[in-house]
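Course assignment 3, question 2. Fill in each field.
Student: A.L.
Task: Predict the tertiary structure for the chain below.
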Amino acid sequence: MTDTRTVSVLGTGIMGAAMARNLAKAGNTVRVWNRTRAKAEPLAADGAHIADTPADAVRDADVVLTMLYDGGTVLEVMREAAPGLRSGAAWVQSTTAGLESVGELAAFAREHGLVFYDAPVLGTRQPAEAGQLTVLAAGPVEDRDAVTPVFDAVGARTVWTGEDGAAASATRLKLVTNSWVIAATAAAGEVLALAKALDVDPQNFFDLIAEGPLDMGYLHAKAGLILNDQLSPASFAVATAEKDARLIVQAGEQHGVRLDVAAASAARFARAAAQGHADEDMAAAYFASFDEKPAG
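Answer field:
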């Protein structure tokens, strides 16, 4: 980036913190806010300004980026930010939200004169930290010069899905993609659970499918986290995966499609969270196959 801008990041969890660091590294003035201030304070070492309130964080910002838990949380925080919002600012909404929520957020943007971009991202902790996310974006062509440098700072690729953020075309593609991620994660956990129950060495299974059409890198990545007890820190947490699975099921129901795998996966994530794995990597849904944590 040869020009700089003021970017406000609301939400500094796993993804938001990494995005804020990369925005600061790209030369932007970055203001951050998080409900739990302690999660935002480490970003001061990267040059970010820590704000006490959402309104302080967004004051005079050129771009506001939201990366929070869900659509309801985003709307709540943006209402708190409203006194500081500048009419004409771009709003990059990167939280994975439900389809109805995107419409509500776009309506809020219109009410406050914001240029709304529906812009969820694909990727977990590691690509976020490396600035290698894939940004799925929908929004008006005429204002993209304001947000393209932001997308370039946090991602390696931007996929434009439409010109109307309110239509949620980016979120629709994100939900479809996440449905596959969630199904694959659940399958990886169940195959290891069944192997354990049947006293089958998982490596025999991996060898059997090696380099064939059933093999996939994602299986090995998630299985490795389970087998090597590397579920913390999470790349994508169980609690967040449960929320996304529920959004996928809801989207299907709204459009007349029954998604049994996603519904079962949501239940598995909820069970794993209740067992104490909410903050671990989503692969920890493996433990939902057992009444207690398996030994060994």
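Instructor remarks: The chain is about 50% helix and 15% strand. The longest strand covers residues 155-162.
Grade: pending
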